[in-house]
């Protein structure tokens, strides 16, 4: 019996692949399958993947996509053939402790938990974090579920029961970026129980050359808009939006805040104009068409990040006119 299926989408990751794959093929949990999906790489990634497939034929399943599907599409290919009791996702530029999936699987089965999370390190800033906090552990009630939807954390530090994803037809958006922004909150709707460990088991490289770290305006603005729109639409389709409006509003606000920051600090001066802020403002109010001033999650942000909630209710021309006068 396969206990954990580990799904790894790969696109042009030759620099990181050996370290990533070494950490997976040497897992202390023996009953695993490692599903590697080459997402039409143009570097040496496919050759490295084939090398590991040849060396570990009983552990590795290799899928070679001839058309780029994006991380979401690649993960969906893995989900279609995964047979494990639990599913784990690893990014190809990251690596894990060799006992990661044994630790998580043992915890998961000890309490029949639907999801188990672990501590991770952001290597670039040398910070540790655990997304699934203790106040959400155990059997879920509505308050715990609210917390998980508001703060879903990251896909790659968790294992999730496969039947949760398969039975509820939960899949990633394909050929897009930020494909996981709407994925995890939807998963949280179907979980009955969760747990976590403060063991540091996952190492997030925070690769500066990854798509989501790009400074391209379309990726940081248009793609995030599409992800937020998909998030709201999915919750409405599932008739869950009204029940979790506060949490979804916080997700929208948090990402909107980062989009405004991007425009302010990373765009060239000639691109910082009223129209782009107006577009963001109108987009926000299209998704959040209710009073959010008393949102409990926004209220918990520090003063600098709460500031955007107030700025969003004024005409950005006032700020820009002051800026251009300086």
Automatic annotation (TrEMBL):
Name assigned to this protein: Glycosyl transferase
Pfam families reported for this sequence: Glycos_transf_2
Cleavable signal peptide: none
UniProt keyword terms in alphabetical order: Glycosyltransferase, Transferase
Domain Glycosyltransferase 2-like, residue spans: 5-146
Highest taxon of source: Bacteria
Keyword Glycosyltransferase: yes
